[in-house]
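Morning!

This is the sequence you dropped in the shared folder:
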Amino acid sequence: MKDYHKDFEFLSKSFLTKFQLSPLHAYHYMTAEQTDTDAMRFGRAYHAIIADQMDEVVIFDPVERPEPDKNFGSKLNKQWKEEIFSIPDKDIISMEEYLIIKKMIAQLQLNEMVQQIHAFELVQEEAFRTVIDTYKVKCKPDGLQIGRGENKENLIIDWKTCTSVHPDKIRYDIVKYGYDVQAALYSDIITEIHGNESNFMFIFQEKTEPYDVLPVIIPSESEVMYDGRNKWRNYAIQARKCFDSGVWPGVAGGFMNNCLIIE
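The structure's back. Tokens below.
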């Protein structure tokens, strides 16, 4: 199976939401070499540790260098450091970052909703691909509880780190960052594959002390889900048009005469 992030035969939330600004931005996302940031690396490590997948993470602790009485000017210490940072397909985090994540998870586990989630068996970090109304789409939920039997709904779970869990900011961020599109796309995919309606739960957590937590549920028949569903389908229509024509217009193409008029 193709690498999940490089597979553009199936449309993802990350790709589709680029159409929120313009098809040109979606094309750039698809074709440009993706740059990694400290925030992305920290976020992946956070997710991996929550999922108890420590084999995906390497902790760099200078205290463990082979010659602790010498700095990294030492040939042996320098070689040791280079070997750690050359480990393929692993996220390297510092000991300080690891301790922060441990504090975050300790606070996370105090939340009653999180405790209820972990009381059930979760499908974690599994990629799903399907076809909905002729559109090939995919998702990779952080966690999934599959409903059993009639009238038992699926629950999709996504962990989000953020700067603040103020409810007004969370409401704003859900639209700004396309989390409504994520909720609807993931829910539609899981419902198509497993049956039953699918609700979506974001677990937002602050990246700084006190690492407060706010679970946010988006029900399957909510207005947010309805809006997100309309958005992802509209973006999918644009994507198909661009793939077929080979034309990926910039943001100006969305306005009459390619110009935004502010009166």
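Headline: The domain at 4-251 is CATH 3.90.320.10 (Lambda Exonuclease; Chain A).

More detail when I'm at my desk.
O.
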